[in-house]
Amino acid sequence: MITAGIVGASGYSGEVLLELLSSHPEVERIEVASRSYSGKAVEDVLPRLAGRLPGTRFIEADPGRLAAMEVDVWFLALPHGVAAAYAMPLMEAGRLVIDLSADFRLRDPELYRRYYGADHPVPGMLSRVPYVLPEWDAQAAWKEASLIACPGCYPTSVLLPLLPLLKEGVIGGEGIVINSLSGVTGAGKKESLFYSYAERAESALAYGLGKHRHLAEIEEQAGIAAGGDVKVQFTPHLVPLMRGIATTMVIPSAASTDAVYRCWEAHYAGRPGIRLLPSGKSPETRPVTGRNRVDFSALADERTGNLLITSAIDNLMKGASGQAVQIMNLRLGFAEQAGLR
Amino acid sequence: MITAGIVGASGYSGEVLLELLSSHPEVERIEVASRSYSGKAVEDVLPRLAGRLPGTRFIEADPGRLAAMEVDVWFLALPHGVAAAYAMPLMEAGRLVIDLSADFRLRDPELYRRYYGADHPVPGMLSRVPYVLPEWDAQAAWKEASLIACPGCYPTSVLLPLLPLLKEGVIGGEGIVINSLSGVTGAGKKESLFYSYAERAESALAYGLGKHRHLAEIEEQAGIAAGGDVKVQFTPHLVPLMRGIATTMVIPSAASTDAVYRCWEAHYAGRPGIRLLPSGKSPETRPVTGRNRVDFSALADERTGNLLITSAIDNLMKGASGQAVQIMNLRLGFAEQAGLR
Amino acid sequence: MITAGIVGASGYSGEVLLELLSSHPEVERIEVASRSYSGKAVEDVLPRLAGRLPGTRFIEADPGRLAAMEVDVWFLALPHGVAAAYAMPLMEAGRLVIDLSADFRLRDPELYRRYYGADHPVPGMLSRVPYVLPEWDAQAAWKEASLIACPGCYPTSVLLPLLPLLKEGVIGGEGIVINSLSGVTGAGKKESLFYSYAERAESALAYGLGKHRHLAEIEEQAGIAAGGDVKVQFTPHLVPLMRGIATTMVIPSAASTDAVYRCWEAHYAGRPGIRLLPSGKSPETRPVTGRNRVDFSALADERTGNLLITSAIDNLMKGASGQAVQIMNLRLGFAEQAGLR
Amino acid sequence: MITAGIVGASGYSGEVLLELLSSHPEVERIEVASRSYSGKAVEDVLPRLAGRLPGTRFIEADPGRLAAMEVDVWFLALPHGVAAAYAMPLMEAGRLVIDLSADFRLRDPELYRRYYGADHPVPGMLSRVPYVLPEWDAQAAWKEASLIACPGCYPTSVLLPLLPLLKEGVIGGEGIVINSLSGVTGAGKKESLFYSYAERAESALAYGLGKHRHLAEIEEQAGIAAGGDVKVQFTPHLVPLMRGIATTMVIPSAASTDAVYRCWEAHYAGRPGIRLLPSGKSPETRPVTGRNRVDFSALADERTGNLLITSAIDNLMKGASGQAVQIMNLRLGFAEQAGLR
Q1: Rounded CA gap, C28 and C73, in Å?
Q2: Among the partner residues D201, D272, D286, nearest to A51 by beta-carbon distance
Q3: Which class is A2-151+319-332 in CATH?
Q4: CA distance C117 to chain A (A)
Q5: Residue-range domain boundaries for chain B
Q6: At residue A59, what are phi and psi to the nearest 5 degrees?
Q7: pLDDT, tens only, A228-286
Q8: Do D210 and C299 count as a contact with CB atoms less than 8 A apart?
């Protein structure tokens, strides 16, 4: 039994993480730190969790103090640019740190600068922090790591189907077009007219054309798997969902539907976080809401010579907090699905 | 002042059409026929229209009887396969017929057979019925036609931005990838578990991969404009909107953003049904709800060599009934926007 | 043909008002003033209105300058407490002022202080500014007034059914229980976590128990109609709608259903803003969206001895901007429904 | 460890029940019977449950066969009128039966006939089957029962706050007005135009005025607690939620807010299924989604002499399947919250 801590527990992924950890069979105690709610009772800020953490209050999110606490694993559910300032001292204090932010997702400091508009505070760390999609698991060494980067929500929906195909050469890295639809919790908890109910209900739009930050992450990981440069056209869309991402990929490819499924089966057979749907059946977002899995399927369109892949995840579960718990489970030797059913 | 008639007035596009015609300055009288509601008061079936058509009842949708009535223009808001059986006798009786169904949208009977799974009842008509996107207006002769095919909702969102670019050779017809997001009224008014609130809320999915019927319409019209074969990868998605279509197109092209806007300006300047947004600003569906216009913009992504076009329409207005009224206006010499503001 | 002006045109009711006035047959020119958007093009701030007001920009909302402009009627779509500072100088400059805010809805300065938490700036005006529900029209003298108070959204849904029954003694003023459900535009356009999509979707709650400001307005007007004190228990609820109010009233009463309908018919027969539904059929909010009318019905529950009344309006139309235009129409001698169809 | 069975597992409450039982620590095996899906894989019909019940198929819902199976407890998630035909043979075969339908909720066969429009098939059973709100627990004897009736969703939201106050005489049974707002899953899984997304989104309405079946259940149980007749005016409303019930009660009463809370504390202190909110703070539905609890609060409105009570539940959890599992837990001696966190 361990003690887990969360920094940034008041956002949407923080809340889901807290909910998961509060009923995790291997977690005995939880510390929750918040930059905004220090001193308040968790139940008052997050009424969904009423009864789960009686008496627990948010503690101050001071990196030094947190580093001094007896906590086995810290989860950082913080905005990018903020997480690094916690990750370093916590790691140096010997804690395991699982970072849900974007701060350590990229390998290349130059790429970070281009997409995030600032120099990375500890650029030397980037190539050393493992980026972990647990089912892909290319870097076995991550199970020794003391700081782990969790993938972004869009990249999770894209990379799990894509990486084995790129690695095995079933598809090439040219001309890939990716369109994703996301619910509004993907943007975080914010005071904003644009994200108000009256503005988001009954509206859909594309955004971030050609420059969304998750694009860098997708291309870098895809390139590693392919063993060469991969360029994708990635267009995210905002739709009136609270939770969920649906992704549609179009890939110029002569691969047969069968070859695609064979490759997926070879890599993913028996993995609980992966659900293959029959060719021709596209996944919906709702069946994966609250689930730590990605559903996907493929169809080779002979008429156009394209391979079509569609996937669905819950952005707060497999796309964030569920995956983070899965990473903890594997890193600490617990059952992979512990606390995730 | 004319008398207008609607067959199929109880569906969603029929209702919007009735609403538009009921306050149209050139329409004096409206006849509404329904296969399901014959004899019922319009207001009881369509309470939104209360006070608009006092005393009006649905009449029986018998083609022969309708043909005998003194009606200047008949709108067919019927499922495909049904409309043709009304269009022919009404046209033969000397009426103007504006068909909102898919029955006369394609030119090629073989294409019809492939996508609609049946032989067309009057295949010889297909090449003779004009398919009219009013702002595109390639076939001037349509203003003499007695039967006119209105474009489908997805094709309207796709073709208005695309056709001038193909015609002028600003883009080529290779490798076009189109993703569209649609609200549920696009599927019509139906008793169905899949379309129930509890199933559609909080869910998004791709459907009709590689085989949606609007694909045939898009490719045929795009090919006519381009003067050669055009193949597109078209993937529609269903999202929790009542109304609206957002379309994202990725087109391999060296064209500059400027060249694209110049082409659009040349074709569409001053047309009230077209609104160009600045490059980099993607349209949302809600601002076009209830509007007979399409909003669109373009961005050349130099990093990938793709041109990105995003558009938004209201599937029931510019995508169906608004466009049908606009067609009537132009065909009968009324102001283009009469009854559409 | 007149010139109309709006102060506060960038909020939800301001936008609807602008949309209505922009196609109003008696309105030639519109001036739009905004405290936040001065200098910006209306179309950029309110893309729904693209093409309606080409070239129009928001002007500065300075009361003195506005008073000096040649405008026939000013609509104030402003928060309470702000409107009065515009109403007085505009009225003194000889303009007709139609106030959509709460500033002149109450008659009693003491009541204003209790519910709004501040002294009214011009308390002497309160009893002199007519409060106008056009179909009720108790004060014929309002057609001479230069400042008119438009009712609140909840009160409109409550008072139109209630007032004739109270006035004619069909019901008494004791023990009335009112529950209303409102969409989120009722709260205005605001940057707020509480009103964000992710917080409001899939949630419903009661609020303002025993103290909502519209309660004062309901009781004061009900008391005037009844000729004595009326006390109501009014509980508003927030539900995931953009627009719409559904109101349910429970009134201890021995009145028969017939007596209620007879009273309503006597007062409202032929009025386009009123739609009586048959007893036993409760109105829905959606059929009245975008409509300047209230739908209502009644049922005497013999088992309990209560009269049940249910009503529905669009909070932005009959509950705000549509009613304001209707008031202008009647005040200036235009057709009652001009610009409202 | 036990074997549990569900009849009617394909509806919304059946699905939630299956999800709960599939991760219940005391349930070893689950049998799922369906009248519509016999022979199909559970995962294909209910993709949310993918991975939970690998290989499990719906069995035929034949009462005789089910009675012969080795199942410790059967849950009936069936429409009223159908459940009784299963309950009797299963009970006679010595199984524990927990009925989520309305078939055994009323005590009085005459009341059943009036509200359900048919004679009860086994009227003699009605007074013998315990109706169990676990926190209220008036009938200790239910822990021996072999057939147990689970309360309806609306009644659960009403009775848990109300019963202690009636029993202790804190309030009387006169003039109680109850308004409830419900999400659409409350109506079950159905093919219906009225319940389609395009009809329910952006709409709210009252229904079942003066005659909803849950009224009978509320009055009968309230009368038992009060020791005399209780009449309530109950008006349910349908709002665009998938899940959730928000209830507002107005009760003529001189009781102080403190007296109400003291009574609740006395009855419910420490019960995990009850969460008291501070007076003046009304519960929302979303924080209770997926939770087996009811949140409620009270406010004495001195101005009107009414006591106001607001409550919120998840209609599929505390209002149906969660409560059914809680009942099983208590009946079989498991931890009250087993499988419910």
Answers
A1: 12
A2: D272
A3: alpha beta
A4: 26
A5: 2-151+319-332, 153-315
A6: -100, 165
A7: 999 999 999 999 999 999 999 999 999 999 999 999 999 999 999 999 999 999 999 99
A8: yes
